[in-house]
Write a structure and sequence with these properties.
- This protein has eleven helices and 13 strands.
- A seven-stranded parallel beta sheet has the order 3-2-1-4-5-6-11, sandwiched between helices. The protein has a two-stranded parallel ribbon with strand order 7-10. A two-stranded parallel ribbon has the order 8-13.
- 48% of the residues are buried.
- It has two domains: 3-162 and 195-223, Rossmann fold (3-Layer(aba) Sandwich); 164-192 and 226-287 and 305-327.
- Helix 3 (81-102) links the parallel strand 4 (69-72) and strand 5 (106-110).
- The protein is α/β, with parallel strands linked by helices.
- It starts with a strand and ends in a 5-residue tail after the last helix.
- The structure holds NADP nicotinamide-adenine-dinucleotide phosphate.
- NADP nicotinamide-adenine-dinucleotide phosphate is lined by residues 8, 10-14, 32-33, 37-38, 54, 73-76, 87, 110, 112, 159, 161-162, 169.
Amino acid sequence: MKQVLVLGGSGFVGGHVCEKLVRAGYRVFVTTRKAVHARSVMHLPGLTVLECNVHDEAALKRAMAGMDAVINLVAILHGSPVAFQHVHQDLPAKIARACLAMGVRHLVHISALGVNAAQPQSAPSNYLRSKALGENILVDILGLREGGAAGCGLTVLRPSVIFGANDKFLNVFARLQALFPVMPLACADARFQPVWVEDVASAVLNSLKQGLEQAPTLRVYELAGPQVYTLRQLVQFAARSSGINQGQGRPVIGLPLWMGRIQAFALGLIPGTPVMSQDNLDSMQLDNVASGEWPGLAALDLQASSLQAIGPEYLFTDAAAQGLLGLRHRHR
Ligand SMILES: NC(=O)c1ccc[n+]([C@@H]2O[C@H](COP(=O)([O-])OP(=O)(O)OC[C@H]3O[C@@H](n4cnc5c(N)ncnc54)[C@H](OP(=O)(O)O)[C@@H]3O)[C@@H](O)[C@H]2O)c1
């Protein structure tokens, strides 16, 4: 039985990835900072939760002992430039070194759509810049720059915004509209190509299988849904699907960026994980749409599922009537 270590397996995408891995017959290990964070996956048959500080390279190596593959889902969406560097650059460096030291054969790394690894400094936000630099660090340390075959292969998956039950995107916009009669929105024309969490998890599984079967090399995929939406359309879709205002949603008022920044500052005052940060606004200066330069879901034998078909199924039950508490990400 092949053994897989999932870093960040306790999160939104991680739960779906772990379930698919277990069903596919892998023995799965999940690292977490606190075991209680992993309660959504700890019941999965044969899955082991490891309480571990992944930033400690020695601890990371111990967790990787005997693993055939590693999946890295650890990331943050908000934080200081130092925090982004710590999680998106320093950690990948430690992961890559540990993979080589422990004989791991394949690493699947989840990055983000909009990352331009060829020009990291052109990124509009700390999130995208640190993600791009992190990809480059992995490629360099694993010795895959020339397409060469080091000990460990690498798959980089770049998803657009991910939707699905308990997502932190459409649900948040639905909750805001449950509370307020109008929806002031910055970057309303920013474009996204939302991808279903189950498709992302299947892409992880299929790319892992491929990586373990083939010679170690670098593969990059863009994971996007079948349709492009503006942020305004997504916000309206979230409210209508949640049944807010008898299914009509709220009027969406586009804000100029400077007003969006004031709004982000105010939202940052709500306790818990910020709903929207200055850095998120910076990320939205770039369309979150597949470039077409890299293969997509089809190259992993998957057909992208549509938001129109899946969104209403979970948004109605997830989002409605959760009030202010729902705005704080129910993180554990
Ligand atoms: N969700 C989206 O729409 C989206 C879109 C594009 C790309 N992505 C990418 O997909 C991946 C998974 O995203 P997700 O939405 O599943 O994220 P998530 O729910 O926030 O989960 C991330 C996990 O990382 C761990 N983590 C967070 N900060 C950490 C830190 N400072 N040190 C160590 N571990 C930490 C947490 O595990 P513990 O608390 O258990 O330690 C958490 O469960 C990420 O790389 C993300 O950038 C997501």
